[in-house]
Each structure stands twice: as C-alpha cells, then as structure tokens.
Amino acid sequence: xxxxxxxxxxxxxxxxxxxxxxxxxxxxxxxxxxxxxxxxxxxxxxxxxxxxxxxxxxxxxxxxxxxxxxxxxxxxxxxxxxxxxxxxxxxxxxxxxxxxxxxxxxxxxxxxxxxxxxxxxxxxxxxxxxxxxxxxxxxxxxxxxxxxxxxxxxxxxxxxxxxxxxxxxxxxxxxxxxxxxxxxxxxxxxxxxxxxxxxxxxxxxxxxxxxxxxxxxxxxxxxxxxxxxxxxxxxxxxxxxxxxxxxxxxxxxxxxxxxxxxxxxxxxxxxxxxxxxxxxxxxxxxxxxxxxxxxxxxxxxxxxxxxxxxxxxxxxxxxxxxxxxxxxxxxxxxxxxxxxxxxxxxxxxxxxxxxxxxxxxxxxxxxxxxx
Length: 371
What we know:
By secondary structure, this protein is an alpha+beta fold. Helix content is 19%, strand content 36%. The chain contains 9 helices and 22 strands. The protein is elongated. The termini are far apart.
C-alpha cells in the first residue's frame, strides 16, 4: 500500500501507516533516529513544611504506635479429617488502652469471630482474649500478652469540649491496608446512631474525615493527638466513605472501658421497674417519660414507694408514676432512662422526678443491680 503524498495530519499518517504495517519510524523518523541530549531535571528546593502539614506528620508519628490491626478468626472443621482450623473472617482496627495489654475496638469488629489476632505497628502479632464487651455501645476490650515496651497507650482527650469545625484525624486499616491517616473536621455533634442491639448511641461525633470499612474500632483524634472518639460507622449507600462518618465519644468510652476491664461486662444499675409501652403515654395523654407498669417486690422502686398504673374494678385507669427526670436530667423514654442509669454505679443514690395525675414530686432511690 502506497502512502498518500498530499499533506495530512500526523494522526491520519499514523493510522495509514498502521494499516499498511509500516513502523512508526517511517512516519516520524525524528523520534526513532534523533538522540537529543537529556538529563534529569534539577530538583526545585521545597522549603519548610507549613505548620498544618508538620502537625499532620507529628500526630501520625505520635499515635501510630498505639494503633493496632485486628484480624478475626473463625473455627472450621475439615469434612474428612475432622481437624479444626482457624480461618480469617474479617479485619478492623483498635488501639492500645494501657500497658497491661488491653486493646479497645468496636464490638461489631469481633462479634462474628471465634478468636482474634492483634498486629502491632511493628508488625508483630499476638493472639487476643476477649475481656469484655458492651454491644449497646458497640465497644469491646481485648487483651494481648506483649512486652510492655511495645504497648504505647493512647493519650485520652475529652469529647465534651469539642466544637464543630475543629480538625480531627482518623487512623485505621481501611480495606485491610496498614495504618492509613485521614484528615477532616468535626462536622456535627450530638448525633444519634444505632448500635448492633438497636439501642441508641447518643452524643455521637460526626466527621468528614474519610472512614472506610476496616477503620471501625480505630481512634478519632484531635490536633493534639488525643483520643476523642472511636470510629464506628459511616453513612453511605455504597459502603465507602461519602463524607459522613460517626464516632463514639471518648467520654462514653472512658466511662465504659474501665468497667469492662474490671467486671468483664457492664453491670447496669436498675430500679426494678417494668415500663409501659410508649403508646400508653400518648393514649393517656401523659408527659414524656417512663410510665410504670410494674414494680418488682423488694426492688429499689418498691422500697421507695413508686406507684404503678392499674385498672380499677370499673375498668378505669388508676394513675401511677411517670419518671420524667433522673438527677434533673430529662427522661423522654425508656432508652434514655437506661442511658442515664448506665452512667451510675450499683448502690449509688439518685433523685427521680415523678409525675402522677398532674402532680409532681421528687424521690430519692438507691440503685440496685439489673442482674
């Protein structure tokens, strides 16, 4: 095939050459035959990092030794040999709580596993034992037997002081990748999210720092490198980060984790009451709160003389007590009452605000145990 002699664009010549089986050197001889002098470009001096970049680096260097990679394992029995082996099931993130080897993560990270392995930042791995969990707050504590010099406990901050707009960092192992740092801001406070038990987690921190699968259980940090929350979920139809992530506030974590380490579970203080369904409040035009349907004999509520709603012989409703506040903190429903009680200890005295047939009173009660 003979190439046209009329002027043509380089693209047209190239297409014709390829059709004719002609090499590129026939069309662009200068590319194949000329050998211009070429040397690496001189590196332009960068200058010092700005303050923000340097702080990003400092936070990562400071906190990364405290962040761990968690691999959950499932037991599997061989069909023929009947041998039991451990197979990887999922991954997540956690962080070192203290030099005793306690590691904090989300409950949902470990809930489907039969065992777990914790990998430290130096890539050494240790089998983990479950110390305790509190699914209502999506928190769990593991423990590993590792040398104390490898256990860099994370610095604890406060979530009560947070403000919308302040910088935050997330360190985790998204998609199984090792130690990734993302940066964002606190985009909202006092959000409500649902735990694996469908209990409401109140006071959640909302952030636009990228949180992806595998980040769960990892730390959310302030610009000083202090723990301010535990990354727990994202809001995204695709399951990948879409700019809205949530973290359990550190004040809640710092309240629950020591009790899990001490008792292996969170023993919830109790009043010894059975709450009426919420639609009872609406049907009887009661104020927001917990209407009492039953009081257990000998319970703190019974000893304090709390009254329950009942039916009269003529079918009329005999008014009982509605708990509207605990220590002057409003109670809108049963879930909120349980959350307030979880902040207390068994044996502690609290003051209940009670409503009964339009009259209000306060009653001191010593909390018992839910067990």
